[in-house]
Structure to design on (241 residues):
């Protein structure tokens, strides 16, 4: 049995994380599989204006997030724990950023094995780099990118990563067969999924492929494998060796 997974989220927009109370993740929290704390970065400022950004050294457009509030927020997150820098299971600090390593299913699987994940959600042009450097003494720091496009901040990327990780926790998905099926993917290892159909067999003049109605499991598996291969070569040739 695994310990409850602890998730700390640091953001200047705590409301972005309201959806974590819904659906499967909300249920995981209610069932005690997951303990989520959302922290407002501005609570770790000391000035009347609750300033979190400043102009970039070296010039350039936009603003950069100041390191001090991040340092205090991370101190607060670590405070309850006995700190062992060499611990095998160090907390992970995820920093969503377009310049990060790609977030993939393999990364989600790795993160799902950890006890404590902290997401540092930046805004503006990002977080002063010294935060990641300082944190590396205490956390496994992972700068991760959701994909090759630019969001306005790390919150939406964090939500996507959290959903991908939490659904892998034992007990979060009611039917673990769904997980097994997608991990070795039936016939489709590493390829895109084949199209799926349900009743009715004919809808608005469109018929379900007849092989799926045949009850012939061998032919069904073969058809699905072909569909996966064809879809993958059309849409994601990079996935074909
Ligand atoms: C400022 O596109 B993204 C992303 C964009 C961001 C920040 C973090 C992540 C911070 N812009 O994943």
């Amino acid at each position: 049995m695994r310990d409850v997974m602890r998730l700390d989220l640091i953001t200047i927009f705590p409301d972005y994380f309201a959806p974590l109370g819904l659906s499967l993740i909300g249920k995981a929290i209610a069932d005690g599989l997951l303990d989520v704390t959302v922290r407002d970065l501005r609570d770790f400022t000391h000035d009347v204006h609750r300033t979190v950004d400043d102009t970039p050294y070296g010039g350039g457009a936009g603003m950069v997030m100041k390191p001090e509030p991040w340092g205090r927020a991370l101190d607060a997150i670590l405070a309850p724990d006995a700190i062992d820098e060499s611990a095998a299971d160090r907390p992970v600090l995820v920093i969503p950023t377009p310049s990060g390593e790609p977030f993939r299913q393999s990364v989600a699987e790795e993160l799902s094995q950890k006890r404590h994940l902290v997401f540092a959600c930046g805004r503006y042009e990002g977080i002063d780099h010294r935060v990641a450097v300082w944190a590396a003494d205490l956390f496994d720091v992972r700068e991760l990118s959701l994909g090759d496009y630019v969001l306005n901040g790390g919150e939406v990327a964090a939500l996507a990563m959290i959903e991908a990780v939490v659904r892998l926790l034992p007990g979060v998905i009611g039917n673990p067969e769904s997980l097994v099926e997608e991990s070795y993917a039936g016939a489709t290892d590493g390829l895109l999924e084949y199209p799926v159909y349900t009743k009715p067999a004919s809808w608005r003049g469109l018929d379900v492929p007849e092989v799926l109605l045949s009850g012939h499991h061998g032919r069904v598996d073969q058809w699905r494998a072909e569909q996966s291969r064809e879809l993958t070569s059309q849409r994601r040739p990079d996935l074909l060796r």
Q: What stands out?
A: The helical segments are 23-30, 67-78, 105-111, 130-135, 155-166, 176-183, 217-235. The radius of gyration is 22 Å. The mean pLDDT is 94. The pocket of 1~{H}-indol-6-ylboronic acid is lined by residues 96-98, 122-124, 126, 145-146, 150-151, 153-154, 157 (CB under 6 Å).
